[in-house]
Structures are given as structure tokens and as C-alpha cells.
Amino acid sequence: MVRNSKDGYEKRLPTWFTSNEDLESLRNHFVVTNKGKQEKLKAMRIMERIRSMAKPIELVCENRRNYL
Q: How far apart are CA 62 and CA 29, in angstroms?
């Protein structure tokens, strides 16, 4: 995601991000690496880039997935 967003950011292209999480939850997700290390600065930079490129829109609807 980061490499693609960098290209779009530099070219000022429309970019869509989708997530089931709000921005605060995403920040918390990016803070912890795969090895369990805390990288707050890295998370802050990623979130700064996302916030500068996107406008949060919450979509609420019924769950249409069919569970077996």
C-alpha cells in the first residue's frame, strides 16, 4: 500500500483507501511491526500521508455476506 500511495501522492492522482478500521485504529495498527517492535514515528508518517490524501467517509449498511 505504501509504495502505491507514494506514486499517487507524487502525481496527485485520486487514491482510494478502504478499511474496516477508523483512523485511530489504523494508527495503532501501524505502530506495531510484524516483529512486535513499536515504531511510533513510522506510524505517524504513514497516517500523515493518508490524511493528506484522503477524506474519511464512513459507510454504514447491513452485512450482506452469506455465512455457511
A: 25
